[in-house]
Amino acid sequence: MEILGGALDPIVTMLVCIGLGGVFVSYMLRNESRNPKK
Questions:
Q1: DSSP code at position 36
Q2: b/e per residue 7-36 (b: at least 16 CB within 10 A)
Q3: Whole-structure pTM value
Q4: What span, in angstroms and rounded, lies between the C-alpha atoms of 25 and 19?
Q5: Which has more confidence, 27 or 37?
Q6: What is the spatial distance between Cα 31 and Cα 9, in angstroms, rounded to a whole number?
Q7: What is the DSSP string of 2-35?
């Protein structure tokens, strides 16, 4: 199980980073469309 966990750790970390990045980007895009820059 330790070997499996060690192999899955980078994948889980990458997925979490991509998930957080997607949420952040979508939030920024919605914020931009609500408050357009002049």
A1: -
A2: eeeeeeeeeeeeeeeeeeeeeeeeeeeeee
A3: 0.51
A4: 10
A5: 27
A6: 33
A7: HHHHHHHHHHHHHHHHHHHHHHHHHHHHHHHHHS
